[in-house]
Amino acid sequence: MTLQVNLEKLLITCITEHKEHVYRLAYSYVKNQEDALDIVQEAIHKAFASAESLKSTASMKSWFYRIVVNTSLDFLRKHKKLQVVDETMLEAMDSGSEDVYANMDLEIALEELPTMYRSVITLRFFEDLKIDEIAEVLNENISTIKTRLYQALRLLRIRMTEENLEEVR
């Protein structure tokens, strides 16, 4: 009983400390505030429901991030045909307003990457996770993550170079 209570307290602390990061992570997949909040809420529910499956409290952060990533991917699979856009994105797309993103080309190039590459880029550069943490979150080998990161950066570089060349023409 005491072990369960301590585990729940540690989980609450982990969720509280990383709430902005996991929201941003979910948002990076669905691009919609309400859906991202739903994903985070569902991930929290899943975490509490399966807390006893956590093998080590030292890996709680990676374990919870993995739940958020998997919940986001499940959401995308379920809602594949329908792309919901929130008001912030609509305003950004409106021709009468200025771009919300400082670098829209990078945003578009990231969106065009396959999910396995976009996940690695998001976790590494936007969530500031280390390679070994990303491997744990995505349940992959470290060498696989390094390869995907290298390939994703190469694809982004090619895409961004092509766009720059098109602008020059």
UniProtKB/TrEMBL annotation:
Keywords: Sigma factor, Transcription, Transcription regulation. The keyword Lyase does not apply. Residues 15-81 form the RNA polymerase sigma-70 region domain. Residues 109-156 form the RNA polymerase sigma factor 70 region 4 type domain. Pfam families: Sigma70_r2, Sigma70_r4_2. One of its GO terms (molecular function) is DNA binding. GO terms for biological process: DNA-templated transcription initiation. PANTHER family: RNA POLYMERASE ECF-TYPE SIGMA FACTO, RNA POLYMERASE SIGMA FACTOR SIGV. Belongs to the sigma-70 factor family. ECF subfamily. NCBIfam families: sigma70-ECF. This is Sigma-70 family RNA polymerase sigma factor. It comes from Paenibacillus silvestris.
